[in-house]
Amino acid sequence: MMDSLESLQQTSWEPSGVPSLAAAKSVAKSDDGLTYTFKIRNAKWSSGAPVTAHDFVFSWRDLIDSANGYQYAFFLRTASLLNADAILKGQKPVEELGVKAIDDKTLELKLERPIPYLDNLLAYPALLPINEAFYKAQGKNYGTSPETINGNGAFALFFGVEQHSHVPFCQVINCKFLSVSIQHETARNQRNARTTSY
Fold it and tell me: Which of 80, 122, 158, 164 could, after both became Cys, cross-link 9 (CB 3.0–4.6 A)?
């Protein structure tokens, strides 16, 4: 499921363990380590819309908004994003979070202090982008089925049906007495760590 979603960085399977770029095609880091500028590569959501820097801004502001109560909101404080701590304490609005879309393909992060493991944090599923229009159109159903997940990764999810039986694939698996439990890895549901059985 994670291959249908892509963050700025991705966890590396190489021995070095150093994350590599994913939704970003390049990153520039300021000398003081307080500003990161990501160039977003040309990619599309499974809905056909282009992936933009605004998708990250929307997602991260939604994540840290205390009205949503997401349990992984602390990641933005751990990443030392500018004003994250004050926002979590209710002292500043989410619009003052240190994430900004300079244009459709340029994302700027401002930190309060340099974080040597920021690359690893940026690969975490809670920091995935979300296409705002698709998210709002799905409402509370966002991320609860393949039809309500809008991926930006290499693969798209679908609800499979065996060619001749007209039985949904997940039901066929269950007929073989396999219990399948999938944790939704969409940005919204990862934040809530909800698990759904299909």
Answer: 122
Q: 25 by DSSP, 3-state: which?
A: strand
| pLDDT mean by block of 10 residues, the chain; 198 residues | 75 76 93 97 90 97 93 93 96 97 98 94 91 94 85 67 45 35 43 38
The closest of 50, 65, 59 to 143, measured between CA atoms, is: 59
Alpha-carbon separation of residue 172 from 115, 160, 164, 169, 176 (angstroms): 47, 10, 12, 5, 7
CATH number for position 162 = 3.90.76.10
Domain that holds residue 13: 2-197
- Show the tokens assigned to 176: 């073989």
Total tally of structural domains belonging to the chain: 1
Q: Which residues pair with 27 in a beta bridge?
A: 38
